[in-house]
Amino acid sequence: MPPPIPRSVLRAFTLIELLTVVAIIGILAAIIVPTAGGARKSANKAKVRAQFSAWTSAFEAFRQEYGSYPQLSTAGAQKLVNPIGTSTQATQVHLFHDILTGRRRDPSTAWPTTTNGTPPPPQAQNTRRVQFINFTDADFVTQADVTAGRNTAAQLNWIRDPFYNTSIACVTDANLNGVINGSDTTGGFPPVTAADSTTVVRVTTATLPTGTTGGVHAGVIFYSAPPGATTEADLILSWK
User: Fold this and answer.
1) What is the CA radius of gyration of the chain?
2) Out of 72-86, 87-101, 117-131, 164-178, which region has the weakest mean confidence (pLDDT)?
3) Distances (CA, A) of 51 to 47, 54, 87
């Protein structure tokens, strides 16, 4: 009678079985990883739209208070949340933040009284220092973002979206006719840069709703380009 087969031999995998398991794991990873990445991108897009919605509400509240929208650049010019009127120092002027909150990014910094400038400084626009929105650190590029390589040191304290993109466009209804179109900008709508590249994308009249008025029925619009964006069809639009 032959000797019994050791338990260790009975429990061992053959080379073919091991390769089969590895292959199955590889197939599952190939299916799961892109799906998880796609879900994360969709979630971030939803966060961007929520961010745009909050900013839109703040701009509308500003108009109700003062009768006009905040000026982020010279009258009629292209408007970008960054880098116009921003600084890497929280103590310096950041038009977007300071106008909507009535204070500097650094709360210990005194609110200036000088009202001269083009566009007008925050203290000349939000004269009553009304807080229209409550920003959080997640809305700004922090030192941790710079250290992690998600942003550059030159972008410190700039407004960003959930994709860590600081290229965000804003256009307001300059003539207050209830519609935003080419008449509200000079030289077309501001171009934005994709979050993960240097690809520049711009909104054109092809993106805007058509009709008798030909434009977006809104007082303010925002848009940015998520990772992988190459055309205006890829943009995240506040009105869609």
Assistant:
1) 25
2) 72-86
3) 6, 5, 21
Average pLDDT over residues 196-214: 75
- Return the pLDDT at 212: 44
Residues 28, 34: Cα–Cα separation, whole Å: 11
Which amino acid, 170? Answer: C
